[in-house]
Amino acid sequence: MAKKRVSIKDIAKALGVSITTVSFIINGKAREQRISDEVSKKVKDYIKEVGYKPSHVAQSLRLGKSKIIVFMAEDISNQFFSSIARFIEEKAYRNGYKIIYCSTDNDVGKAKELISTFKMRNVDGFIITPTPDLEDVIKDLMEEEFPVVLFDRWLPDVDCSHVIVENKKSAFEGTDHLIKEGVKRPAFISLESDQTQMIDRETGFREAIQQSGVKGLELKLKFHNLAESGPYQELFEFFSKNRDIDGVFFATNYLAFEGLQALDSLGRNIPKDVKVVSFDDHYFFGLFKPKITAIEQPLETISEKLMETILNHIEELDKGYVSRKIILPNKLNIREST
Question: Which InterPro entries match (predicted)?
């Protein structure tokens, strides 16, 4: 049986004080209302003891909507996230909302701190690319009745709305394309990650090579944020040791950028010696010689679905949270590298 949520009314009744008094203390207005330190301490101690969490619905009704939505990405400077951010900004503005942008750098500590800060500012909702180990924080947000939508990846243990793409299917199609173009020794370059989108891309690669019977290689690299040097050296060494690799599937475009540099340094000709496919298309891939085959995510559609979902949650705030799960198709853009 679900544990009953503690309300302000319950706290007031248990301590023998008025609901108004409890409300003033919770909202930091005790001194302004001349409530004694003794009463304030008694209420705060009890709140901590029973684990009370204020309802966002109640706050919204009391203070009004802030008309602000938080957009929390892994790295806002990354072209994928910045493009979605730009589309979302336009759609939010048309609906009377403003967006606050921030980057987590895939750091759970930073993500928790940012979410805590924005909760106190009574923002209307959160669009989040979740970091590892953020499940409890997302559950808390939902329990406090904040509208939340995840994107790029989802959390299997949390029944939360999300907008994602067909990662496994697209990775299978990209790998299958390499094999059909004659690749006998494909390599999959990815990140050390338990995140759903990376697991799905790895699964798609593995299923394609198992189905074809070729022998594949895999390399998983640590996540690098913008302030750190990229994995060029690790990729250079990997390709140096495995000269029989004749096809590469890069799980993200920034890994492809580093990998293409490494292959060029080794004098490996694309596509004669090595054929290349990357997840996350980028304008750079159309400028590179030869042009790089890549999987394009539907950025504008992702943005539309994110805004549509978060605005629906905000409008239905008093009806309770019902999750929406949206999965969108990608497009394989075949170019000269294959």
Answer: HTH_LacI, LacI/GalR-like_sensor
Contact between 213 and 152 under an 8 Å Cβ cutoff? The reply is no
Q: Is 14 exposed, middle or buried (0-12, 13-18, 19+ CB in 10 A)?
A: middle
pLDDT digits (tens, 9 = 90+) for 227-285: 566 799 999 999 999 999 999 999 999 999 999 999 999 999 999 999 999 999 999 99
Q: Structure tokens of 2?
A: 């679900």
Question: What is the set of domains in the chain, with CATH numbers?
Answer: 8-52 (1.10.260), 61-164+300-328 (3.40.50.2300), 167-296 (3.40.50.2300)
The residues, ordered by sequence, that sit 6+ positions from 289 with a Cβ below 8 Å of its Cβ are none
Cα separation of 71 and 115, whole Å? 11
CA contacts within 13 A on the Cβ side of 304: 6
CA 334 to CA 338: how far, in whole Å?
Answer: 7
* Dist CA 303 CA 76 (whole Å): 14
Q: Rounded to the nearest 10 degrees, what angle do helices 19-26 and 8-15 cross at?
A: 120
Strand 125-128 to 148-151 pairing = parallel
| Kind of pairing between the strands at 275-279 and 217-221 | unpaired
